[in-house]
Amino acid sequence: MKHLLSTADLTRDEAIAILDIAEEMRESGTRQIKKLPALRGRTVVNLFFEDSTRTRISFEAAAKRLSADVINFSAKGSSVSKGESLKDTAQTLLAIGADAVVIRHPDSGAPARLAATDWIGLPIVNAGDGTHEHPTQALLDAFTLRRQVALREGTSPAGRGLDGLKVAIVGDILHSRVARSNLWLLNTLGAEVTMVAPPTLLPVGAGSWPCTISYDLDEVIAKGVDALMMLRVQGERMNAAYFPNPREYSRYWGLDDARLAELDALGAETLIMHPGPMNRGLEISSAAADSPRSTVLDQVTNGVAVRMASLYMLLSGDLI
Amino acid sequence: MNYLIKQASILGGEPADVLIADGKIAQLGTIADAGDAQVIDATDLVLLPGLVDTHTHLREPGREDAETVETGSQAAARGGYTAVHAMANSTPVADTAGVVEQVYELGRKAGWVDVRPVGAVTVGLAGKQLSEIGAMADSRAAVKMFSDDGICVFDPLLMRRALEYVKAFDGVIAQHAQEPRLTEGAQMNEGEVSSILGMPGWPAVAEESIIARDVLLAEHVGARLHICHVSTAGSVEIIRWAKARGIQVTAEVTPHHLLLTDEKVRTYDPVFKVNPPLRREEDVMALRAGVADGTIDVIGTDHAPHPSEAKDCEWGAAAMGMTGLETALSIVQHTLVDTGLMGWADVARITSEVPAQIGRVADQGRPIAVGEPANLTLVDPAARWIVDPAAMATKGRNSPFAGMELPGLVRATFFHGHATVLNGQLATPRSINA
């Protein structure tokens, strides 16, 4: 693995290897001394061209727990706002002495471009690019799912995929990099994916995706799912006519109290996942977000472990 | 200098000798005595009328870092062209007689091809007020083609008036068909690939709906309409319907839309970023069929050079456009001739004769016959070459064909009897006093 740009690039064996290493990393995080010496002397740059406190600090924590030095570069107040190009910014960081770049960028494909050009030649981790992908989010989602299923069964999560699991991804699929990364990784790991959204928030062309498409959340819940991944929906989307108003969105596609009660009535073991930050009362009700089904905080914890595993695999050089 | 071209296949047909003297075709047939003419062995080469581009961005005035009239017209000559239509989106915009005359004069001084300025339809390409179309038509540049290319003349009333008004000057409106609301923020063709790449899509309907509207407007007011860079199968269908109704519409396709698809965008390399965007394989095939059956009339390169920094960046920050003058004939051969869709006489029609008629360019796109002006191109269809943007005459290095092996090399170009290209290399410009 030279870069982590898209979950579509991962084979099943590679994906499982990352998840397995993340298990070990997570275990190390429960010790009193959390720090590992694996990346001592290496420098990881968090190159963030978009506001994202959560993802940035997760990567920062991951790198620091591996004893790497971390440089945080955010576009605000930097030379980027003065019109410096991505190429020049990246080359400046190389000159400073970076060993790997974690990049968040508003343009789809910017990390891929950084990896494909001769600009810097460093390992690149895509920390979210436009509406394209967010591979570490999908890895932490898969990690969380795998772990929860193993816990329930009283088995070990190590070495296994997500075979046969039914996962519904619900919400603004069109603008979601999380949805795309999850689509590929869940498929690679053997899960069945259903995308649930109003037709306006599904991309034209999604018919070719390896998943089922539905406009009806109630029907999907009634059929039974192992996990509901709720995506953040921006209320302002109504201004571009994606839906009439947030209330109507919530009524049809939100995980509200009635649908939460329906899960309970069905006796389902459905997990409720959300990549955060949540819009409580829009795509997810407070009761759903705080219910025992919710893995929201678990996902955050696991995010650090998965990012440790990703950085370790990219920078330690030896795969698996 | 006079030239005797020996044994050239005229429009791909029977070989003949052609004597070029005093800027004209002086003799045709078997010519034994060359006199003082330079003899060019053209065995196995095809002789075409000099190519005429309906759609070129020369960037001057304003963006001389990207291209100048000099370098752009050198690129044109290298590509076998003897005339180009220079689009109006310069800085300042070519929306007055002064600017079009400036571009025209720069072209004359350069001496590589006829530079025919295109006038803007609206002042500053702003889509609000008609430019001084009459003044540009009556200027020394004698503008016949008007276009806001790069921007769609979207206001339906303004488009109607423009179509009506140019009739007084035998002009044509060349429309960049792109519904602006449906393409806000658009980065690539909307479809399967854009759904995976997470790029804002550019739906085919944004092009097709404007074409549908405009052919109906052209019919209503009885005006000439030219559709720039048609890129979708649906557009071909609409234009086919319009022509069957007798509407005065002509259509153009670029070489890159005849070959490349949106699969190229998976690389995120902005050299493939272009407006209109690269479409699907089905569209490419429909465009080729449209050229073959005459629905699409001409090849327009949409040659759009950019400085390297405009492409050496991430996709979203990159400029749209590709160079095309020096690869156009090769792509035409590759996609239309070598595929058996058409012969060289058809190539002459779509790259020279009809483009000259649309732009009302005198002395261009003429038959290869005695007494006609010697605007001619000699192409070697058997040669193959690997595209190297660094070796091109254009300043732009943004060729989407870089590294590809293509058929067909321009061996010589004659511009009013003057060799602008000889032995496949740029020769000398034609003197302004000629």
From TrEMBL, chain A:
Broad enzyme group: transferase
Entry EC no(s): 2.1.3.2
Pathway per the UniProt entry: Pyrimidine metabolism; UMP biosynthesis via de novo pathway; (S)-dihydroorotate from bicarbonate: step 2/3
Binding site for L-aspartate: 82, 177, 232
Assembly behavior: Heterododecamer (2C3:3R2) of six catalytic PyrB chains organized as two trimers (C3), and six regulatory PyrI chains organized as three dimers (R2).
Organism the protein comes from: Glutamicibacter nicotianae (Arthrobacter nicotianae)
Listed name of the protein: Aspartate carbamoyltransferase
Binding site for carbamoyl phosphate: 54-55, 104, 134, 137, 276-277
UniProtKB/TrEMBL annotation, chain B:
Binding sites annotated in the UniProt record for Zn(2+) 1: 55, 57, 149, 302
Identification of the protein by name: Dihydroorotase
Enzyme class, spelled out: hydrolase
Protein encoded by which gene: pyrC
Listed PROSITE patterns: DIHYDROOROTASE_2
Names of the cofactor(s): Zn(2+)
Organism: Glutamicibacter nicotianae
Domain of life: Bacteria
Protein family membership: Belongs to the metallo-dependent hydrolases superfamily. DHOase family. Class I DHOase subfamily.
CDD domains assigned: DHOase_IIa
Entry coiled-coil feature ranges: none
Cofactor binding notes: Binds 2 Zn(2+) ions per subunit.
Active site: 302
